[in-house]
Write a structure and sequence with these properties.
The chain contains four helices and four strands. With 117 residues, the chain is of the alpha+beta class. It has one domain: GTP Cyclohydrolase I, domain 2.
Amino acid sequence: MNQIGIEGMHFYAFHGVYAHEKETGAHYTVDVYIDYDFAIAGASDKVDDTINYEKVYKIAEQKMQMPSNLIEKVCVDILTEIKVVFSSIKNARVRVTKHSPPIKGRVDKVFVEKSLV
């Protein structure tokens, strides 16, 4: 199986359970890894025969713009939409990272990750 990865998609979004998170927002990154057979794309050299990175980015961007209490929901929403748009994929994994979370103490980031399988 082959894999395509889109790492480090940066967003400023308004997710969180605290009021100040919904008002001031925070920095997030999203990483997506998709397993699929790209033999056809490798032979044709046509973007229509592969997983279009721009479409994946647009999915992540759209879901990140919809405020949620939990990044778990955002992660599931991104993964679900990727599976809908790219129905031929075998597996996908999405990681949503929140930078500088509102935790007492020094924490650089927290993340959630979900796979189809």
